[in-house]
Amino acid sequence: MEINHDDSHRIDINFENIVYSVPVPKQKEKKIVLKGVSGRFKSGELTAILGPSGAGKSSLLNILTGFTTKGVKGTLEMGKKSSNSAQKLCSYILQDDNLYPFFTVNETMLIATNLKISSRCMSHNDKQILIDNILDTLHLVHAKETRCRNLSGGQKKRLSIALELIDDPPILFLDEPTTGLDSSSSTYTIRLLHNLAREGRTIVCTIHQPSATIYEMFDLVYVLAEGYCIYQGSHSNTVPYLASQGFQCPQFHNPADYLLEVANGEYGNFTYQLAKAAIGDQWRTSSSTVYIKDEYENESNSDRNDDGISNDTEEKRISVYTKTSESENLSGKLSFKSSIKTTPSEWTRLWILISRCNVLLFRDWTVTHLKLLLHFISAVIIGLYFGDAGVNANKSISNIGFLIINAVYLWYTSMMPAVLRFPAEISILKKEVFNNWYKLRTYYIATLITSTPIHTLFALVYATVVYFLTEQPPEPGRYLKVMLVYILCTITADGFGIMLGTLVNPVVSRLNNWIYFGHINSFIFTERHILWSNLFMLYDRILWISRLVQAHASLHAICQ
Length: 560
Description:
Shape: elongated
Structural class: alpha/beta
Radius of gyration: 29 Å
Largest sheet: 6 strands, mixed
Helix content: 40-55%
Number of domains: 3
Oligomer: single chain
Number of strands: 13
Strand content: 5-15%
């Protein structure tokens, strides 16, 4: 795929009569979230979608990005492209800053760059120059070697923006970019978006309650209330618009606050009246797209040099920020030149993801180091408890119990972490897959490849210790068979856990239901082998369920 971002690829977003409905549990009628909204978001402008909670801000944003398609009616156009092809050029920054905590800022940027830009059109040194200058532009150079978990809220938000600027998307969507930030960080973030929009991008964000300073930075304000659009125009026309509808904004009152008060119905329910008045573009400052490269303001470091763009070759032109001549250094302007980038193949991306997963496994000591230690300690305790059960005929029943415990232990310790792992990473996965970093199957294969050796190591350490401590038959063939069975047991349990985790909505309350299901799954297996007296023969009609549990098969394989 090639991305060519120049003036001819500036994309305006037009949508008409968008209706969005969602089903309501235990009711036949659907709830209508958006009620025929229309609008136009132009390139070169920073657009803010405002409204009370539940007005449909995030729903509209999800529809524009293509994140939501079910239950949507209406027309959506993005420039001269079809909505499907144009949405591939969009980047969507979610409300939460979804970053891997164990990577530094530079490592995170480098991984994203390798996933987005092929090494055939940009060398490693050029990629590092690109990264350094993006971080410099977003004031993140000083935190370059800081791990993401140690960043402040504003730094995380800027890093999320920096990650999507690597391939210079023409359209950028942000959901609540100021959530969790203080006043200063919020103002800086919106100013950054304002300047990025002036480069020719179409930037759309939702925001809950902007300050007066932030409100003045928006080129277009799009206000929703009860699923209707009650205002679409410039920030400077807010007060005249409200006055034309009989609402007088008090002097020295934030127009954004007053507009939201009207939207909330604090002065009466005039939603339908305002929706009719908001139709059209008459409240925009200008009907033409503004494309002015504003001076990049830096209140905290007024004497720093700013970055321009240049790194052209005869065959490929890559958009990188580089120190330019005196004119741009003096003017302090931020500019993007047209670029052509080729994305790497999925095979290349697979190896990048494998490398990333390996680093995560090594740095997260709770996943590898601690778990390996726990397997060793548990093996020693269990092995000492059962003693010579492997050679003492009087302890044959105890030996069977020992084998059951091994199967259950390996099953539990492999399945439950897998159940929890996917919901913990799903937010990052959704962002990266939706923004075309890689395909879902690539992520799954990389996860499978990296987790298999780890589970093999855990099974070998545990099984070897308990095998010799309980004095099992010292036969190489039997030992290798036991090792193979336990390795397969752990790998199968991990896959079973991933399946459960995939079905989980990553909300804790729902997650618990699947955790309980995992416990029940293992209980069915253990019950089948513990309750075998005639007193429990009535269970024979339902004990066939235990044969569906993979740990049941591992026990049979060892006992044969």
